[in-house]
Amino acid sequence: MIKISYDLPNSLDYINLRVNSGMGNKKSIERVDIA
After folding, report:
1. Superkingdom of this entry's organism (predicted)?
2. Domain of 3?
């Protein structure tokens, strides 16, 4: 339920964020947010 949108050339990171977000892994979301 956390929405993080940012313009970056790394689509893989964005996809990982979406998948992890669906699983409910806050750690993954935080990691991507830092990146």
Report:
1. Bacteria
2. 1-35
